Amino acid sequence: MKITSLVLLLCAALPLASQSAPDTKLQITPETRAALVKLGGQLMVDGKAYEYDRQLADEIGPRLTGSDNYVKATEYAKSEFTRLGLSNVHFEPWTIPATWEPEKVATGRIIKPHEQRLHIESEGWSPSTPEGGVRGEVFYLKAMTAEQEKTDAESIKDKIVFVDGETFANSGRNFGKLFDALSQLKGLGARALILGLGAANNTPSMIGLTNFDGELSNIVAGNLGREDTLLRRRMLAHGPVEVEFSFKNKIRMNVSVNNVVAEIPGSDQSGEFIVIGGHLDSWNPGTGAEDNGTGAASVLAIAEAIKASGLTPRRTIRFVLFGGEEEGLIGSVHYARDHVAEMDKCAGVFITDTGSEQPLGWYIFGRADEKQALTAIDPLLSSLGAAQTTDNGRFTFSTDHGPFLIHGVPSFVLWTPLDKYFDLHHKASDTFDKVNQRDLNLGAAVVGITAYAFADSATMLKHYTNDEMEKQLKEIKAYEEYKDMADHKLF
Ligand SMILES: [Zn+2]
Fold this sequence. Notes:
Blueprint: H1 2-12, H2 30-46, H3 49-60, H4 68-83, E1 87-112, E2 116-117, E3 120-122, E4 134-140, H5 146-151, H6 153-156, E5 160-164, H7 165-169, H8 175-187, E6 192-196, E7 221-224, H9 226-236, E8 242-264, E9 273-279, H10 289-308, E10 316-322, H11 330-338, E11 346-351, E12 361-363, H12 368-374, H13 378-383, E13 388-390, H14 402-405, E14 411-415, H15 419-424, H16 437-456, H17 466-475, H18 479-487
Parallel strand pairs: 4-5, 5-6, 6-7, 9-10, 9-11, 11-14, 12-13
Antiparallel strand pairs: 1-2, 1-8, 3-7, 4-8, 8-10, 12-14
Helix pairs in contact: 2-10, 2-16, 3-10, 10-16
This protein binds zinc ion.
Residues 279, 291-292, 325, 353 line the site of zinc ion.
């Protein structure tokens, strides 16, 4: 709160003269409706999202923020936007404290109670292990909190601390406290950390230990799949367990990273705009085809479809592909910060980040006026089976709308079921064979139709003040999380 309140006050103090009058309804004229039908049809039957995703995932590959592949992806997106005839196509750079890429395949083994291979990977943004690897006895930490660690301080010293899903379930959903606990381990003398958060068939799942700021973790951290995790829990119930592991990561400090931005200019001159966005970066074990190749591909496909349909919206549509999302929304935090002076002209932000499943509608985050506004296009979204909304506070700061939301901007995230997503995201199995073309087109059509309706309406939803945003977040039980992140200077 302390961090953003000043920013929000500045925002509220900007002149409102050129803005559309706030309303809770979208104005859908017959012309707008015809444009939405044309755009929806274009995206459903001739949408290019599937091919864009194939190129991102199969031809470019995993896109760790700041890596060579990430740079390739930004250049690819920029050249596509240019080829499609978009305006103001450019990079917007920001600096990440560290980039991280695995350099050598990780190896590991259990030593005690018996010798066995450990299917370990380096956790994202972990330093390399020292020459010769890390070896030591394993200590299971039952909650990732500073208090629990202090209680267990004697046992943590010189051990390899092991945590799993149960540890995190016992830790509470407070990112700041979690980060504090993580940072403290090194000081308590832990040799390393092993996270057992992966999936079946010993598939590790990346979370990244960057404290939402892109800094390298202060402790070496490995990552295990489900079977090795469960085995370790069973072994520990019967006696001491000793392991060793080794990996080498390529780490570069203070690297410039680009968001990619392009526009379709609106017909009026008010300077108002909407943002259609998603993150371009991905984790490395797979190729990020679902998380978030689908979202980035949808952004490109919507731009392509609007151009192909020959449509000109009232407001400018800004397409933004962010980097650094997986390390803590870093690209979108920078974007919102850099554009704070024009945030009052942003009529809505529309983010895609949940893969290719049949869309249900929109995640909204506690604003009744957003739900009300969407009713204007209900008949069109219903025909795609996607006219629902959900106020699920769990994902309020889980993707790139978050930094816009706290600036009072109407914020929407495409809502799809997540059953397939959680089996794939951040894992080696996140590859293009999982992408369902029809569902991907459906998602792009829902985003395209909704965003275009907000871009073309003569009316615009109000910007929430700081107080209104606070009330909004309290209603969906996301305020504590926000406050904690703000206190840690993450916004
Ligand atoms: Zn994602």
